[in-house]
Amino acid sequence: MATREHFRVAVIGTGFGGLGAGVRLRREGVTDFVILERADSVGGTWRDNSYPGCACDVPSHLYSFSFAPNPDWPRAFSGQPHIRAYLERVTDIFGLRPHIRFNSEVEEARWDEEARHWRLRTARGELTADVVVSATGPLSDPRIPDIKGLETFPGKVFHSSRWDHDYDLEGKRVAMVGTGASAIQIVPAIQPRVDRLTVVQRTPPWVMPRMDRGINAAEKWLHAKVPASHKARRGLLWLIREFQVGAFVRRPQLMKATEQIARAHIRRGIKDPALRAKVTPDYTIGCKRILLSNDYYPALAAPNTEVVDAGLTEVRGSTIVTADGTEREVDAIVFGTGFHVTDMPIGDRIHGVGGRTLAEHWKDGMAALRGSTIDGFPNLVMIIGPNTGLGNSSMILMIESSLNYLADYLATLERTGAAALNARPEAVRSWNAELQRRMERTVWNTGGCVSWYLDASGRNTTLWPGTTAEFRRATQRLKPQEYEVLRGRTERTGSSEASAEVAA
């Protein structure tokens, strides 16, 4: 006989989603759970992304858990160190550390159809769990394009989310590949230090002014002593963003007013007409993620910066070559080229009914019932699943709604005595068909751009085409008719997390 640990719930990841799941489980009275983390500390994307200038583009008081308000945010838009410190505090305040196993990357999760539970193989051993909560997030695995000759580059190469802090950029010739959310923060942070900065731009982003400021002592005192004031501030920030949703999802023509503000922002930051033309997008604002920065355009206009508006196609020794034939010698290449969002790598590691991987199941595009559950993958619940992303507000709101759904999912298992619930294929199809129907007139689908919101077939499988309040209503309660109930839970001895199994 061999003993393998068993848990009621296994959570994957310690970002906002994973830590939030841990807190919600404890609040629901579930203490028989483990949180598996591949790194040696908590934080998820806010641990991994530590590049110069890294900060959030959602106001601090909205980018935090409603159950863990933070009156001490230092700025309206906080930087990465403060957000990571907040997550560390949440971990300690809610007693999550005893549940976390660091350096425990999940190498495989396989549904055992006979035992009606999941078998997980991690870097530190094997375990089983009745329910698996995947909170790996879409911004966790960096994407570096396949560039001819990159492997022969003699200098330094790294992705923005794997920043090499031991490499000194001072006086170096640096190529910044990409002009997305990370790049517009990195460029102004490193431009004064480098000898020459080449920004390789395939598609220019729309950039709006960043209404950032320090939060003074009086505000912090008020929020700490009068919690209702903090709640009111958060509510106002939320309400403003809820009102913006209509322009994104129903009437993209309303984005024209916002576009005029962005054009004025370009004119203020860049005086050279030729450079202005290079950085002015030709698609509707909002089609790609709207970025916030006050210093990006001045950094592009600096004497030591050059914008090459063509994609990187080849590396020849220490020379980068772009699609327009431009060649530049560089000492370092930094990729700000995003993440595996619509093809999440963990999909190859999760095996459902019949051994089919999630990647195989999603070969024609991601889809999940209410952004959480997938047919053929019983008792797998996702946090930040397909079509739960936002284009204008805080993902923490969506995470908390998904946690409501998780809580009711577990309560349904207990109430019915079921071993597992399996989303019905027709329920997933119906939910996804309605999402895609609503997506047709959104700015993300009609704005004339190609973005990471879209998968290889051009479908938007990442964003939510509605308000956060609407998503909360949709995930408040599980609908039993959308699930097949699986009986026959295996018995386990004792009150602990261990079950005996016959050794192979």
UniProtKB/TrEMBL annotation:
Keyword Flavoprotein: yes
Keyword Oxidoreductase carried by entry: yes
Annotated keywords: FAD, Flavoprotein, Oxidoreductase
One Pfam family linked to the record: FMO-like
Domain of life the protein comes from: Bacteria
Cross-referenced Gene3D superfamilies: FAD/NAD(P)-binding domain
Family in the record: Belongs to the FAD-binding monooxygenase family.
Name of the protein described by the UniProt record: NAD(P)/FAD-dependent oxidoreductase
Organism: Streptantibioticus parmotrematis
